[in-house]
Amino acid sequence: MIELNHVTKRYWTQNIAKQALKDVTVQLPQGQIIGLFGENGAGKTTLMKCILGFLSYQGSITLDGAPIDRRNIHRLSFATCEHSFFPHLTAQDHREFYRHHFPAFRDDRFRVLMDFFRLPMGREMGHCSTGQKNQFELILAMSQGADYILMDEPFAGNDIFNREDFYKLLLGMLEERETVLLSTHLIEEVQHFVGRALLLREGELVGDCSVTELEEQGRSLVDYVKETYQYRSGRVLEALDRLEQDGEGRT
To answer: What is the pTM of this model?
Structure first.
């Protein structure tokens, strides 16, 4: 289990502190598919990078009671839209690199996913399209053999058909020990895929719910998110009314 206790992260810009995470406490057990949702700048990417040890922070993050460091970091993988692969290596080169450095590397999963996305084995990844790069990033994260797979906006540049098919494939492919933490804005698409939802707002954890319990209450995940963020559907009309009034005032 990954446990975050009172995790706080501040960024400093021109001697001004911006709090990206505020006292976040949450547990991430094995065997769950967890959606991490929030507005732009809510702290989703920062949270993942703190878990991975890419950023310093206050508080504690542990994996089965131990700090996350070089002794257990292999149990975590990361698919990021910023890309973490080597652009001048081919997919085949990456396969050999991962097989050498990760003893639990899932070669069968790698081959199935490469075929599924129809990616070339011999082309340098830096020469592939944005969508293909994001697909390859997912493949490496899924094939590493990690217990916890963190995905940060992994579907950018992919069409809706590839996304829908990948959700189905992922559900059939994951094993009981594997946990996925998925950060995305595509809430409607993943609401039947994730089992749990975490909501961040301005760095604070403002929601943590079971999607099954929501469905039993006759509520959708989208409804829950809107309620939690106190979304006002009328703000669009208000903005258009103000624009019209400003135009009339100028005439």
So the answer is: 0.87
- Which CATH number does the domain housing residue 190 bear? 3.40.50.300
**HEC assignment per residue over the chain:** CEEEEEEEEEEEECCEEEEEEEEEEEEECCCCEEEEEECCCCCHHHHHHHHCCCCCCEEEEEECCEECCCCCHHHEEEEECCCCCCCCCEHHHHHHHHHHHCCCCCHHHHHHHHHHHCCCCCCEHHHCCHHHHHHHHHHHHHHCCCCEEEEECCCCCCCHHHHHHHHHHHHHHCCCCCEEEEECCCHHHHCCCCCEEEEEECCEEEEEEEHHHHHHCCCCHHHHHHHHCCCCCCHHHHHHHHHHHHHHHHC
Q: Is residue 45 part of a domain?
A: yes
Residue 232 lies in a domain: no
CB-based contacts of 251: which residues, under 8 Å, 6+ apart? Answer: none
Q: How far apart are CA 186 and CA 183, in angstroms?
A: 9
Number of domains in the chain: 1
> Please, what are the averages of pLDDT over each run of 10 residues along the chain (251 residues)?
97 82 97 94 95 96 96 94 89 95 94 94 92 91 96 79 82 92 90 93 95 92 89 70 68 55
Structural domain including 195 reads 2-219
In a domain, 238, yes or no: no
Tell whether 179 is covered by a domain. Answer: yes
